[in-house]
Write a structure and sequence with these properties.
Layout (H helix, E strand, L loop, with lengths): L8 H16 L5 H6 L4 E9 L3 E2 L3 H11 L4 E4 L6 E2 L4 E8 H31 L6 E3 L9 H10 L13 E3 L1 H7 L2 H11 L6 E5 L2 H10 L3 E5 L3 H11 L4 E5 L7 H6 L4 E3 L2 H4 L6 E11 L2
Parallel strand pairs: 6-11, 7-8, 8-9, 9-10, 10-11
Antiparallel strand pairs: 1-5, 1-12, 2-4, 3-5
Length: 290
């Protein structure tokens, strides 16, 4: 399984370069320089130390390549694949110093993204019997949003907007300052171009009725319990996309989906995902180049 979208190459390289610069500091990897001969070569594997869904193999490969282009990184699986404890994710061969120096940055990206993909997959499994899709939010790690949203896709989720310029999303605070649902919607329609979708958040059925009268592309049903969501979905009647949000957990997502909504946004996919445990193990080290 592969994601239909991957982060652009320049974003990947920029992020990995920055991470390597942070790790190498001013003097580089002094431990490896002190203990490993320059001519030494090594083979290693990256393996899962628990079950999950893998994401970020391409990012990990870039970390090794940027340290030394002579490192050969061979994936043993694909992003989006389900993996078990002990499964080999990639094989690596090349200059030992480069492998050891790039190891932590590569594993940090791979573990973080695989953790997000794994948590997303758990949510998606809970609602597989419904039409709803689980999606992410903008509650992402600064500067890593494209990567984390990619990981959500690898886990079977959908992406919400990537930034403030993707779409109009009128939240409760916008409504309060604008003077109500109708003024906010009318102002948004007057401002937005014909390619820009408009979504608005509501937390009562009365607000929803105003939205239905004025029109929008998507309505965000915020913190509504399943019985209220069912009423809201019935009122919408398919006239716009219905998204549920607010306090969604693995325990509650199925009931929310069964209320008939189209999307369920879950900030926890990115802000609370636990890093998947992956590790690098040297198979052969300290050999000399021919």
């Amino acid at each position: 399984m592969t994601s239909p979208w991957t982060p652009p190459a320049h974003l990947v390289e920029d992020a990995v370069r920055a991470a390597l610069a942070e790790d190498f500091g001013r003097a580089g990897d002094i431990t490896t320089q002190a203990t490993i001969p320059e001519a030494a070569r090594a083979r290693a594997v990256i393996a899962a130390r628990e079950a999950g869904v893998v994401a970020g193999l391409g990012v990990a490969a870039v970390a090794f390549r940027l340290v030394d282009a002579a490192v050969i990184f061979t994936p043993a699986t694909l992003d989006g694949a389900r993996i078990g404890d002990g499964d080999v994710l990639a094989q690596i061969e090349g200059p030992a110093r480069a492998i050891l120096s790039a190891e932590r940055v590569a594993l940090n990206f791979l573990g973080r993204l695989s953790g997000i993909a794994s948590l997303t997959a758990r949510h998606a499994e809970r609602i597989a019997h419904t039409k709803a899709k689980v999606c992410d939010t903008r509650k992402t790690t600064p500067l890593l949003r494209a990567f984390e949203k990619y990981a959500v896709r690898c886990g079977g989720g959908a992406n919400h907007r990537f930034g403030l310029d993707d779409a109009v999303l009128i939240k409760d605070n916008h409504i309060a300052v604008a003077g109500g649902v109708i003024p906010a919607l009318r102002a948004a329609k007057a401002f937005a171009g014909h390619m820009v979708k408009i979504e608005i958040e509501v937390d009562t059925l009365d607000q929803l009725k105003e939205v239905l009268a004025e029109g929008a592309d998507i309505v965000l049903l915020d913190n509504m319990p399943p019985p209220l969501l069912r009423e809201a979905v019935a009122l919408i009647g398919g006239r716009m996309v219905a998204e549920a949000s607010g306090g969604v957990t693995l325990e509650t997502i199925a009931a929310i989906a069964e209320a008939g909504v189209d999307l369920i946004s879950v900030g926890a996919l990115t802000h609370s995902a636990r890093t998947l445990d992956v590790g690098l193990d040297i198979e052969i080290g300290l050999g000399k180049r021919a």
